[in-house]
Amino acid sequence: MSDSYYRTIKGKQFDRQLLEIAEKASQRSKAPLSKNVAKNLFDTIVDGNEYTDVEKRTVKYIRDNYNFTPEADEYLRTEIRKWAAKISVPSAKKSKKTSKPSPKKSKSKAKPKEESNDTSYFHVFDSNSDDDVEPTPEYNELVELNKYGKKEKSPYLRYVFLGIVILIVICLFFLIRSCKSDTTKSSNVTVSEPNSKAINQNESSAKAVKREQLLPHTEIGKGTVTLQFIKRLDAIRYINTAQIKFIKQSLNVGDGASNELANLAEALKKYPEIKVRVKGHTCFIGELDENKILSEERAKLIQDELIKLGVNAKQLEARGFGETTNIDTNYTEQGRIKNRRVDFTVLSVNEKN
């Protein structure tokens, strides 16, 4: 047979007629090959009523080396697979008894000898054996691709939704629990309101007992008044500069505290219009929270002592500052002694009194 119907490229044979269709179309225009070119290629393949290996190789070569429009490429692939599936039948179904030559192809081209003897690559279409049609590998590939396209969606969204639901449930749980806690607290406050007057009456004694239990201390003795405050300005200056020292980590006062308290009480009783803040302080020895509590207890202790000496409770306001307001360094013993103190600040002078 002549090789004029085939073209050899890199040692492999390709269908010359199919190659020429693609070449001529690409020479006419630089644009991608259109659907009409794909139809011409398909019609040329169908003309032989079988899909040979040479044609398969040629179609693959054309698709790899020529640029088709998406519509043309889809048309060529789909139509070839449909047609190949339709004409394909098992090679075993061929008649072995007939001695007649196979029908002549309508194409005016011949096959190489080795291809014409290999019946496993092409089959004769028999309209009477439609029930025995077996899909080609290309058709099976298309079916698998379709199945892959219909693959179930990832359960990622399901997990996200489940996580959101769980988070909402947890938030609701804590919200309900918080509401119940607030209700319990409010009920406790309501029950205790009738007894508020009795608590206020025993407030001073209760504080003293609590302070004694938490931080035992030595009773402050009665001091002596050593100063006279003829002018209110003198009293204010004394109050703003007065200090009562304390022993480390305790409520025990230092030397001279009783006389200092006596002078303070004298100034406040003589000028009841003066309102004072009693401020407790500590050095930095100990924990921060513990020092805050200790400073508050020191301020309250001095406040109670002044009330015992006759000062009106409305003139006094106690507050603890812990180790945050030092007047000297905490890295020397002398500095720490100065920082362990209670001092005073005049807040206001009410002329109406």
TrEMBL record:
Coiled-coil ranges per UniProt: none
Keywords: Membrane, Transmembrane, Transmembrane helix
Residue ranges of the TM segments: 156-176
Domain OmpA-like: 231-350
One Pfam family this sequence matches: OmpA
SUPFAM superfamilies: OmpA-like (SSF103088)
Segments of skewed composition (Basic residues): 93-110
Top-level taxon in the UniProt lineage: Bacteria
Keyword Repeat among record annotations: no
Chain positions covered by the region annotation Disordered: 92-136
UniProt-recorded name of the protein: OmpA-like domain-containing protein
Species name: Leptospira ryugenii
Taxonomy of the source species: Bacteria, Pseudomonadati, Spirochaetota, Spirochaetia, Leptospirales
